[in-house]
């Protein structure tokens, strides 16, 4: 990318979350990811650079190690001409969903992350005559906390996602409670996975998006978006699944396409596996805490059939979902165990603000930083060193030593 000759007309709005806004290049398979902030939150360019660099370093030094080279794209921090960023910001403004406009794109620092565009395939020639599909899933946390610090009984029965559904519908963020429950998706049981994926397709909220040739064709921007239309989705997807099936359409065709879609997603999520089953691993995902969430309609029907004591995780060891769950389960503390440690660090830093820099609280999160954490105290001697280690790295170290393939 020639940063001297950036033209905003070559870039288009691609999507955004709560923290960043993404634009895609019209021809090349790259995106720029900019940070967003509330209107009066002033950050220096240096702080923004460091924030972005921390994201890259965390990807390189932590996530890559757990998920593997092939699954983590760290990107790089780039500095762009301010004129370009300002023009781009004006250009994309009208395409942004209203509910996301409480924050503004950072146009002052000129820094952004440059990443491969995962909604378009780099190896295009594989599928010459078929459209290129990209399915984005935000599966959320797939286990019920097992930390001894948990005090709310309900948290042992109902997963965080399902509890949040009630909150989000009550506060008007979404219109309808989704039947999706992450524990069903992560179960490895085909029936439960199909149910989870179909539910996710019904109420995509911000947990599922589908792109065709880089364009968003399915997934809702906010509660005001029109209801999911499966026949329209099927119309888009038919050339991919049934390329030679002429003009056939109607409910039968819709059902067939959705079924194929769910089947393909399931296959991908269970792929990349080593031989063997998770059950063989002493600390494999699913071997702690309940494996069914009481709020899931599927879980409820299982209980009615008296099948609540299902086999533990049926995920093939090493598949994508398995790895994701294993990383999530590094959270040995739950927020109830973590927050007191966070408060301890916060109070310490209020007392000794100059230690922020020495302890590298705001980065850089390079290799030396993680090594330093590993060397810190592992006994609770009341120090900030223990709190930092336990909160940031203690659980990483523990899992690393128990799961040889990581
Ligand atoms: N590398 C990428 N390739 C394609 N699309 C991306 C890429 N990174 C992000 N996106 C899209 O932009 C959206 C917002 O980006 P995300 O990183 O999730 O922002 P946030 O940190 O605010 O949640 C994502 O939901 C996804 O659709
Ligand atoms: Mg996001
Ligand atoms: Zn649940």
From TrEMBL:
GO MF term (any one): ATP binding
Q: What class of enzyme is it?
A: transferase
What EC designation does it have? 2.7.1.158
**Origin: domain of life:** Eukaryota
Compartment list: Cytoplasm; Nucleus
Q: Name one GO biological process term.
A: inositol phosphate biosynthetic process
GO cellular component terms attached to this protein's record: cytoplasm; nucleus
Q: Does the keyword Transferase apply?
A: yes
Keyword hit for Nucleotide-binding: yes
Query: Where would you say this protein principally sits, based on its record?
Result: cytoplasm
> Which InterPro entries does its entry note?
Ins_P5_2-kin, IP5_2-K_N_lobe
Its UniProt entry gives the catalysed reaction(s) as:
1D-myo-inositol 1,3,4,5,6-pentakisphosphate + ATP = 1D-myo-inositol hexakisphosphate + ADP + H(+)
Annotated function: Phosphorylates Ins(1,3,4,5,6)P5 at position 2 to form Ins(1,2,3,4,5,6)P6 (InsP6 or phytate). InsP6 is involved in many processes such as mRNA export, non-homologous end-joining, endocytosis, ion channel regulation. It also protects cells from TNF-alpha-induced apoptosis.
Q: What is this protein called?
A: Inositol-pentakisphosphate 2-kinase
Origin species: Pteropus alecto
């Amino acid at each position: 990318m020639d940063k001297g000759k950036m033209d905003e007309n070559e870039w288009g709005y691609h999507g955004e979350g709560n923290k960043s806004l993404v634009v895609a290049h019209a021809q090349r398979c790259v995106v720029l990811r900019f940070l967003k902030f509330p209107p009066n939150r002033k950050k220096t360019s240096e702080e923004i650079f460091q924030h972005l660099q921390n994201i890259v370093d965390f990807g390189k030094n932590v996530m890559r190690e757990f998920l593997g080279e092939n699954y983590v794209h760290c990107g790089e921090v780039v500095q762009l001409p301010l004129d370009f960023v300002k023009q781009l910001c004006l250009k994309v403004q009208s395409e942004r969903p209203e509910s996301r406009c409480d924050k503004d794109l950072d146009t002052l620092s000129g820094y952004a992350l440059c990443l491969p565009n995962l909604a378009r395939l780099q190896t295009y020639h594989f599928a010459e005559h078929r459209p290129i599909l990209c399915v984005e899933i935000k599966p959320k946390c797939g286990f019920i906390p097992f930390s001894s610090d948990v005090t709310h009984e309900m948290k042992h029965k109902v997963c965080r996602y399902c509890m949040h559904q009630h909150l989000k519908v009550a506060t008007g963020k979404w219109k309808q409670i989704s039947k999706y429950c992450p524990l069903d998706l992560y179960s490895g049981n085909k029936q439960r996975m199909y149910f989870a994926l179909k539910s996710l397709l019904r109420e995509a909220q911000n947990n599922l998006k589908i792109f065709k040739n880089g364009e968003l064709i399915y997934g809702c921007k906010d509660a005001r978006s029109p209801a999911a239309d499966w026949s329209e989705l099927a119309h888009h997807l038919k050339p991919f699944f049934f390329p030679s099936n002429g003009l056939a359409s109607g409910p039968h065709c819709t059902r067939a396409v959705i079924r194929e879609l769910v089947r393909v997603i399931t296959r991908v999520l269970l792929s990349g596996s080593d031989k063997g089953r998770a059950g063989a691993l002493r600390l494999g995902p699913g071997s702690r805490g309940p494996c069914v969430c009481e709020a899931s309609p599927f879980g409820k029907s299982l209980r009615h059939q008296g099948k609540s004591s299902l086999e533990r995780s049926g995920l093939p060891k090493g598949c994508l979902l398995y790895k994701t769950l294993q990383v999530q389960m590094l959270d040995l503390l739950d927020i109830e165990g973590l927050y007191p440690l966070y408060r301890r660090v916060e109070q310490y830093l209020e007392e000794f603000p100059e230690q922020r820099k020495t302890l590298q609280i705001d980065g850089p999160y390079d290799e030396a930083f993680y090594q330093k954490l590993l060397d810190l105290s592992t006994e609770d001697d009341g120090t900030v060193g223990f709190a930092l280690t336990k909160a940031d790295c203690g659980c990483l170290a523990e899992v690393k030593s128990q799961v040889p393939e990581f």
